[in-house]
């Protein structure tokens, strides 16, 4: 709820968002869910910005989030058009120990990844890992895909339905830093080339399950809260209800993220497996 309360504050007092070269439009993405203190009413809004939903006339029988996605697409898009907003910051919290995670579509999102580099170097918030959130071959269905460029924030751990002062302050600092970057970019600042580390999802890992589909083991205590830390062959991953450890039996080392995320239980995801990569990025400067 950090983003929700920040947006509500900025709707009352937008002075913190004001810059000389652009305007910011704060918006609560899913107001009905906020009223009920739930993640969504009918379906996950942040998985509803696919063309199949945006380009089909919504009916009264559709989930509220489909109608809301179309409204947001009309305000900030249309998605993929020249009229779309230049940049969108999408503010999220997570129950997983993700730190102050910066999510972008891919390493080819040059403006967004330069913003990430700027945040990592200039924001007082520490531990801002970069996650490339689009799985290979998948359509981008996140809200930020409506704009030409985007960045999502995933700050945690924070329980669902609450706002923690420490997480809210971190999110606020990152947003201010991101807006400062856009201001500098618009004024023609040259951002030099750099190398940067990012984490690329390779697989979504489910919990072990009984034949009837019920979970038969939980995240191992040694893995809990170890997001972005290497999981090596032979390391414990799960622990069943008899106390037996289930080990990583592959021969690869990977970096799990969104470990034991509450929102992913319904999606049958215990964590995402990622690999850490280093990318060289060219310099960036706005042309006039």
Automatic annotation (TrEMBL):
Against InterPro entries, the record matches this protein to: AspA/AstE_fam, Aspartoacylase, AstE_AspA_cat, Aste_AspA_hybrid_dom
What's the superkingdom here?
Eukaryota
Topology class, membrane: Peripheral membrane protein
Positions bound to Zn(2+): 92
List GO terms (cellular component aspect).
apical plasma membrane; cytosol
- Reactions this protein catalyses: an N-acetyl-L-cysteine-S-conjugate + H2O = an S-substituted L-cysteine + acetate; an N-acyl-aromatic L-alpha-amino acid + H2O = an aromatic L-alpha-amino acid + a carboxylate
Where does the protein principally reside? Answer: membrane
The AstE/AspA barrel-sandwich hybrid domain is annotated at: 195-276
**What does the UniProt keyword field contain?**
Cell membrane, Cytoplasm, Hydrolase, Membrane, Metal-binding, Zinc
Paste the cofactor note: Binds 1 zinc ion per subunit.
Stored Pfam families? AstE_AspA_cat, AstE_AspA_hybrid
**Active-site residue list:** 154
Cofactor(s) for this UniProt protein: Zn(2+)
Query: In which compartments does the protein localize?
Result: Apical cell membrane; Cytoplasm
Q: Name one GO molecular function term.
A: aminoacylase activity
Q: Which residues form the Succinylglutamate desuccinylase/Aspartoacylase catalytic domain?
A: 1-181
Give the EC number. 3.5.1.114
Q: Give the protein family.
A: Belongs to the AspA/AstE family. Aspartoacylase subfamily.
Q: What is this protein called?
A: N-acyl-aromatic-L-amino acid amidohydrolase
């Amino acid at each position: 709820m950090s983003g929700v309360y920040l947006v509500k504050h900025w709707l009352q007092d937008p002075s913190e968002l004001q810059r000389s070269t652009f305007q910011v439009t704060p918006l609560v993405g899913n107001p009905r869910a906020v009223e009920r203190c739930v993640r969504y009413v009918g379906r996950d809004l942040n998985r509803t910005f696919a063309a199949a939903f945006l380009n089909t006339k919504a009916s009264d029988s559709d989930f509220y989030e489909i109608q809301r996605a179309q409204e947001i697409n009309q305000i900030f898009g249309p998605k993929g058009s020249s009229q779309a907003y230049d940049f969108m910051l999408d503010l999220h919290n997570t129950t997983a120990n993700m730190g102050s995670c910066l999510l972008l579509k891919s390493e080819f999102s040059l403006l967004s990844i330069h913003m990430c580099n700027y945040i990592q170097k200039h924001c007082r918030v520490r531990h801002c890992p970069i996650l490339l959130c689009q799985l290979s071959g998948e359509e981008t269905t996140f809200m930020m895909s409506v704009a030409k460029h985007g960045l999502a924030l995933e700050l945690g751990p924070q329980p669902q339905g609450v706002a923690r002062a420490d997480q809210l302050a971190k999110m606020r600092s990152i947003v201010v830093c991101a807006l400062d970057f856009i201001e500098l970019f618009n004024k023609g600042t040259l951002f030099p080339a750099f190398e940067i580390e990012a984490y690329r999802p390779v697989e979504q890992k489910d919990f072990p399950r009984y034949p009837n589909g019920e979970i038969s083991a939980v995240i191992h205590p040694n893995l809990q809260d170890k997001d972005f830390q290497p999981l090596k062959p032979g390391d414990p991953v799960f622990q069943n209800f008899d106390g037996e450890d289930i080990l990583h039996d592959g021969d690869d080392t990977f970096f799990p993220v969104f470990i034991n995320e509450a929102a992913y239980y319904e999606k049958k995801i215990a964590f995402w497996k990622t690999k850490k990569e280093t990318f060289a990025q060219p310099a960036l400067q706005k042309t006039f």
